[in-house]
Design brief:
168 residues; mainly alpha; Four Helix Bundle (Hemerythrin (Met), subunit A); two-stranded antiparallel ribbon; 2 strands; binds heme C
């Protein structure tokens, strides 16, 4: 009976194995595998960058969604002259707009947005100061000045509608 010089299945398996781990670990020995490894690395890097952007935009949305909540609470606590709670609200707003400011600085090309975020922080800090001085009327007035930055920035840099707002 004619015998195959080798088991063809085994040969096939070996052929498939030839671009195995060793080639990936020593890719320079095989230019084709090296190129393929490099393109996988490039795709992974691109995905990481895209992922980081998506992450910061979803963070951004979280900050924005916290604003009406903190503002509502601040107004309520100023009306009730609850200094400790109102101060905590003002500090949360200030911290949020610090993050918003950093976001726009990193993004670049929108000095006006950076300015709105800076002015919102200044107003939030003023509110906290008013409250610590026991001046709740001034605090209420400064809340209005804080709020004037919301609309200004939204007109310039927000698009879409309720439920599908986007950064522009
Ligand atoms: C520096 C610019 C800027 C300032 C200042 C700003 N916003 Fe925004 N806001 C945006 C942008 C851009 C969007 C759209 C992207 C998004 O929804 O995350 C947005 C979206 C929102 C949303 C919708 C969130 C959502 O997607 O459901 C709310 C609510 C909101 N802002 C409230 C406020 C309030 C309240 C203030 C002021 C206390 C404020 N924002 C100040 C830029 C700003």
């Amino acid at each position: 009976m004619y015998e195959l010089p080798y088991d063809s299945t085994d040969h096939h398996r070996r052929a498939c194995r030839s671009e195995g781990l060793a080639d990936i670990l020593r890719p320079r020995d095989n230019p084709e595998v090296f190129m393929r490894t490099m393109s996988v690395v490039a795709v992974m890097a691109a995905l990481l960058v895209a992922g980081a952007l998506a992450q910061s935009e979803s963070d951004y949305q979280g900050w924005m969604k916290s604003n009406p909540v903190n503002l509502g609470s601040l107004n309520k606590n100023i009306a009730a002259k609850d200094g400790a709670a109102a101060t905590a609200d003002a500090q949360k707003l200030e911290a949020t707009f610090k993050q918003v400011e950093d976001f726009w600085k990193k993004r670049g090309g929108a000095e006006d947005a950076v300015n709105f975020a800076t002015k919102a922080q200044t107003a939030a800090a003023a509110i906290a100061k008013d409250i610590s001085a026991g001046n709740f009327d001034q605090a209420a007035a400064d809340v209005k000045s804080l709020q004037s930055n919301c609309g200004g920035c939204h007109m310039a840099h927000r698009e879409g509608s309720q439920g599908s707002f986007k950064i522009k």
